[in-house]
Automatic annotation (TrEMBL):
Belongs to the NDK family. This is Nucleoside diphosphate kinase. GO terms for biological process: CTP biosynthetic process; GTP biosynthetic process; UTP biosynthetic process. Keywords: ATP-binding, Cytoplasm, Kinase, Magnesium, Metal-binding, Nucleotide metabolism, Nucleotide-binding, Phosphoprotein, Transferase. Major role in the synthesis of nucleoside triphosphates other than ATP. The ATP gamma phosphate is transferred to the NDP beta phosphate via a ping-pong mechanism, using a phosphorylated active-site intermediate. InterPro entries: NDK-like_dom, NDK-like_dom_sf, Nucleoside_diP_kinase, Nucleoside_diP_kinase_AS. The active site is at H117. It comes from Lichenibacterium minor. The gene is ndk. HAMAP family: NDP_kinase (MF_00451).
Length: 140
């Protein structure tokens, strides 16, 4: 199995409740290494670009509002099969459907305020990482 990089965001509901360390503990316990990390306030333009794939969806406006409502922590995670592994660690988009022990089951407040983002495929991981990090900011 290949060592991969995936892109992660700890969303505003996490920073607002001071849960960055608690979520990071779950990430590290799962064997993923945080090889880049910064806390930023996402601009509207950044959020619109990041979630551009959803721009026709009814929840798009609400999603952009939520992502810009408080700081987020953007990260690059490294590990074997990191993309799928992190999706498993996050749990289902709807926290009511997320398995026990996942980030979203433990911490998410709702379908919108669902605590974490993780890339869904190698191509999107590459694009998303490049939107927020320069290559020399990633220290594996
Ligand atoms: P993400 O992209 O954030 O990792 O989440 P995901 O793949 O599990 O879900 P996706 O379908 O890509 O949706 C992106 C984010 O939009 C918000 N959302 N709200 N109100 C709603 O019905 C609704 N549906 C999605 C969530 O914050 C979701 O993570
Ligand atoms: Mg998604």
């Amino acid at each position: 199995m290949a060592v991969e990089h995936t892109f992660s965001i700890l969303k505003p509901d996490v920073t607002r409740r001071n849960l960055t360390g608690a979520v990071n503990a779950m990430i590290e316990k799962a064997g993923l290494r945080i090889v880049a990390q910064k806390r930023i306030k996402m601009s509207r333009a950044q959020a619109e670009e990041f979630y551009g794939v959803h721009k026709e969806r009814p929840f798009f406006g609400e999603l952009v509002e939520m992502m810009t409502s408080a700081p987020v922590v953007v990260q690059v995670l490294e590990g074997e099969n990191a993309i799928l592994k992190y999706r498993d660690v996050m749990g289902a988009t709807n926290p009511e459907k997320a398995d026990a022990g996942t980030i979203r089951k433990e911490f998410a407040l709702s379908m919108g305020e669902n605590s974490a983002h993780g890339s869904d495929a190698p191509e999107t991981a590459k694009q998303e990482i490049a939107q927020f990090f320069k290559p020399d900011e990633i220290v594996g």
